[in-house]
Amino acid sequence: MHLSTFVASQVLTFVLFVSNALGKPITSLEPRGKKHEHGCIKPKVFLIDMFPPEGEVWYGIPEFNLLARNITVPGLSPLFPDVHCTANGEVCQIITGESEINAASSITALTFSPLFDFKSTYFMIAGIAGVNPEVATLGSVTFARYAVQVALQYEFDAREIPSNYSTGYIPLGATAPSQYPESIYGTEVFEVNEPLRQLAIGFAKTAQLNDSSEAVAYRANYAKNSAYIAGSQAPSVVGCDVATSDVYFSGTLLGEAFGNTTKLFTNGTGVYCTTAQEDNATLEALLRGAISNLTDFSRIIVMRTASDFDRPYPGESPEDNLFYAPQGGFEPAVANIYLAGIKVVEGILNGWDATFAKGINATNYIGDIFGSLGGKPDFGPGSVFNDNPIKLKKRSARSKKVRLASR
User: Fold this and answer.
1) Residue 376 near residue 389, CB atoms below 8 Å
2) Can you tell me the distance from the alpha carbon of 33 to that of 52, in angstroms, rounded to the nearest whole number?
3) What is the average pLDDT value for the chain, to the nearest integer?
4) Residue 280 · residue 266 · CB < 8 Å
5) How high is the pLDDT of residue 65?
6) Is there a contact between 127 and 307 (Cβ–Cβ < 8 Å)?
7) pTM of the full predicted structure?
8) Less Cβ crowding at N or C end of the chain, within 10 Å?
9) Residue 318's beta-bridge partner residues?
10) At a CB cut-off of 8 Å and minimum separation 6, what does 175 contact?
11) Which helix (H) or strand (E) holds 131?
12) Distance CA 340, CA 344 (A)
């Protein structure tokens, strides 16, 4: 998003926090072992938003009332302590708070909460993002197959980059930008269900997307570079991949570097088009839930709408692109979360009995770089678990501790 809009959103977040702190919560914290007044909720679709503008676009819509049930979940963000659900519990929503730590903490608390049963739930990340003009444009709706943690690398200050390096970012354990990381943490890359992604893209393409006159005028500047033709076009629905970085970066060199990182980490398959701060963290938390048989990792959709360009157009400075340019993409991006997202939600709900209840078979690998859920990753060095999923086992009848073991 444009930086001035970002600052305004933080002010709004603080106001909401003060309001929540002074007012009585709709629901109260309860001990883990105590039965909650709502009972165990089994959502069919769960929306994951990161900050208020993304979340509020779902309120007051004609299709359903997300504020019919409000459940306080221990461990969620103090700014956003409640999960919101429809009266029948079929659709729910969380606002995680921004950045990787907030997302990981909130989604972990949610996943392991006894208030919900997520075994058949479809999770949809539904947020805004920066966009690569080589692939998409302001207002576009993107669906990712890969999420890549591009900033999980060594870094040189730009003024001290070795003369033979194209960027100051070097994969961990490597000694050059083009080498695959040898020190792997496990969160570098996630891959989600490709057939499900294609269904989501099909649903979203039936939406009439929002745009703004400012965005039309601003994106026209990108037509000056033939590589940015996609950035100069009207918003559309695109299948391409998301980069995760807590650092809010801007500039052609960083954009190109992280595009190269995306290709490198996915063995040449990934196409970097959007940049966000949370997705790998969210996916890691959901994957840990899947290891514990609490979530189904094949039921995840990653949707990001484009609010701002990640780099300037020819003749524009990086600081103007980040701080001052009237890009006009924020409002259409937020609006398109709902306009495209509701088509996906309705597609799942309307096709539940015939298609979605039983799940969509993933014909591609799904999971992390370790192969934690079984199968052999089509990126990275291969499964560290011999293509077998992690299984939780009790050590003994007397001990409640668990250990990780491969089947």
Assistant:
1) no
2) 31
3) 89
4) no
5) 98
6) no
7) 0.88
8) C
9) none
10) none
11) strand 122-131
12) 7
Q: What's the start-to-end Cα distance of the chain, in Å?
A: 45
User: CA 47, CA 174: separation in Å to the nearest integer?
Assistant: 37
Q: What is the full DSSP assignment across 344-406?
A: HHHHHHHTIIIIITT-PPPSS--EETT-TTSS--SSTT--SSTT--EEEEES-SS---EEEEE
Tokens encoding 234: 């009207």
Residue 161 has a pLDDT of 95
Locate 219 and state its tokens: 């994106």
CA-only gyration radius of the chain, Å: 21
141 vs 148: CA distance, rounded Å: 18
DSSP string, 3-69: HHHHHHHHHHHHHHHHHHHHSPPSS----TTSPPTT--B--SEEEEE-SHHHHHTTTT-SS--TTSE
Sign of torsion, CA 34 38 41 47?
negative
For residue 238, the cross-strand partners are 142
- Number of neighbours of residue 6 by Cβ within 10 angstroms: 16
For residue range 40-55, what is the model confidence (pLDDT) as tens digits?
A: 999 999 999 999 999 9
Burial class (CB in 10 A: 0-12, 13-18, 19+), 227: exposed
Phi and psi angles of residue 276, each rounded to the nearest 5 degrees, phi first = -140, 175
148 exposure class (CB count in 10 Å sphere: 0-12, 13-18, 19+): buried
Lowest mean pLDDT among 15-24, 231-240, 316-325: 15-24
Distance between CA atoms of 316 and 69, rounded to whole angstroms? 48
**pLDDT tens digits, 42-90:** 999 999 999 999 999 999 999 999 999 999 999 999 999 999 999 999 9
**Which of the pair, 277 or 27, is modelled with greater confidence?**
277
Dihedral over Cα of 201, 207, 208, 214: its sign: negative
Q: Supply 222's token pair.
A: 């990108």
Tokens (6 digits) for 33: 């072992």
What are the residues whose beta carbons fall under 8 Å from the beta carbon of 55, sequence distance 6 or more? 49, 80, 93, 95
Distance CA(323)–CA(277), nearest Å, equals 18
Residues 6+ apart with CB under 8 A from 35: none
Nearest to 242 by CA among 276, 265, 269: 276
* Residue entry with tokens 């993002």: 129
